[in-house]
Structures are given as structure tokens and as C-alpha cells.
Specification:
3 helices; elongated
Length: 71
Amino acid sequence: TLIEAGEIIENNSKVDNANKAAKAKQEQAKEKVKNAINLLRLQGEEVNAYRVAKIAGISYNTARKYTNLYI
């Protein structure tokens, strides 16, 4: 049963690492969105999810996810 407990701890560690990686990816996406928004605003262009996605190099759905950053 100690082995089973060790496996559980190892699995929790894997889950923790996956969660950390997902969080880091979300933060990177937010930064990309913010940078794209700033660029569009500096150029005096319309800010919308499609344009943000194109400039940031992210999916349209990800850009939509962070609409609160530009609306």
C-alpha cells in the first residue's frame, strides 16, 4: 500500500505540473492579447477579437475569451 500511496503522490505532482503549465499558457495568451490591443490602439484601428487574434497569433476563441481586456 505504500507503493500505491507513492503513486498517488506522483500523480498529484503530475496534475500540479499540468495546472502550472496551463496557468503559464493563459498568462502568455493574456500578454499577447494586451500587446495586440495596445498596438491596434496606437495605430488608431478598431479593436475586435478577429484583429486581436491575427496580430497576437492566437486563436479567435482565445481572443474572445479575453474580451474583458478590450471592451
